[in-house]
User: Fold this.
Amino acid sequence: QVQLVESGGGLVQPGGSLRLSCAVSGFTIGNSVMSWVRQAPGKGLEWVSIISIGGGTTNYAVSVKGQFTISRDDAKNMLYLQMNSVNIEDTALYFCARNPSFYAATQLQYNYRGQGTQVTVSS
Assistant:
């Protein structure tokens, strides 16, 4: 049974940091493109960051470039998102996903997705 379980969300002040984690079971992420997507209140899904098989290539949405860092630990079957200098616009439900390809991830196409972890940025 495939499961992607996100954790690490919560309430954070503007300018603060959070590290999201995604624990995967049911498949090996080592041969998978993985990504983080988010959905802000009242808005549609937005891809945030993508990481290639092996982690050699990453891509970030313009809105988070230089602010967020995606990483993976294939040995632990874990995906991470380090969020720094967060702002109110980063408030959203964050999901991790397995994607058919790097390009597919930019089109919000995924094989599996977790249930999400809520990030709320507020003073």
User: Anything to note?
Assistant: The helical segments are 102-106. The first strand starts at residue 3 and ends at 7.
